Amino acid sequence: MWKLFKVAFLAAVVLAVFFGCGKKAKDTYLVGMAGPFTGDGAQYGEMARMAAEMKADEINKAGGINGVALELEFQDDKGDPKEAANTAQKLGSNPRVLAVLGHFNSSCSLAGKEVYNSVGILQMSYGSTNVTVCEGGDWTFRNVYRDDFQGQFIAEFMKYVLGYDRVAVFFDNDDYGRGLRDAFAERAEQVGLELVREEAYVRDTQEYTPQLTQINAKKPDAIFISGLYANAAMILTQARNLGIETPFVGGDGLLSADLITNAARAAEGVIVTCPFLPTTADEKTKKFVAEFKERYGTEPDCWAALAYDAVGVVAEAVEKAGPDRKAIRNYVAAMDTPQKGYGGVAGLTYFNRDGDCMKPLVVAVVKDGKFVPYEKQAADLERAEEALAASALPEAGPSEGS
Q1: Who contacts 280 (Cβ-Cβ below 8 Å, separation ≥6)?
Q2: Domain residue extents for the chain
Q3: pLDDT per residue as tens digits for the range 305-342
Q4: Which of 39, 65, 346, 401 is the most exposed place for a label (fewest CB within 10 A)?
Q5: Is the pTM of this model over 0.85?
């Protein structure tokens, strides 16, 4: 009898635990988030994680999603495509996960895309800008611009606004670095911006002196870095130590407080493009910046803003379409006009048929150890192009009858 009682008791405990877990599953809506929470890109991942947690807390304090709490599950892909594929498998195979926010690195989003599309779960990247990220992936979206848009803009800005004629390119030999480099190089040729030297590097490169010496010998007007902040900080430091005073311009991969921390004075004057700056904010964004600073003691970067908005997009989809993977994906896909878009802290988010989202660009410069808006912005490029087009028109001759 005692043995029978013990068996019955243990069975009851197992059932209680089992059904308790089941009850918890019903009490929360689970969304995965993948990013580089450790490794060279940890600064980006940590910013995104903090912003996502902040948005989830705000949603839950306001009553959750239709009364159900939003829960986030974080998976560290370490900025490594192999880790990203494993991470995607973990999240995609969990039936509780309704959607995935991620990845940050383009190579990681590309590595995870096949998994997400095969299992049928929404992938919403908050940082991947390589042109091919959304191609061929019906379940893959992003709330940030593509590299072809950014690369073309940088080439035009360097030529028409900054007035450079001869430039060199330093690029990270990964999906992000190559994609941005390719778009930049193509547009540079079209606008008459001469590429005098190109140098590639891999992520674990520590010594850039030989490449910098080769570039400096070509006497470029400026050097464009197509990569991430960790390598860029070493490039800047070593360039200045060599006495190279050539101006540097970079894409959004350079936008990190750690660029300034690691490069110190060598970062002064570096110009970068990005989708968001906390100092160029409307009232909604100012509120986000103030609350982020109060909570974490630091200003949010553009990746924090994009991750914050990505949580908002997915939460809206769950609220309107229900906790169903396909319904969530279809709701997001239907956000295809400004009128149907999501008004976030990093601007309006809506998608084209490929899942791409175009965001406006901001030009920033490192001044006195901070990223601040550059004195010239996208509007200055538009005016420069208009003036150039007008100057190319033939002068009007005397009118008829004069």
Answers
A1: 362, 373
A2: 22-145+282-349, 148-274+362-387
A3: 999 999 999 999 999 999 999 999 999 999 999 999 99
A4: 401
A5: no
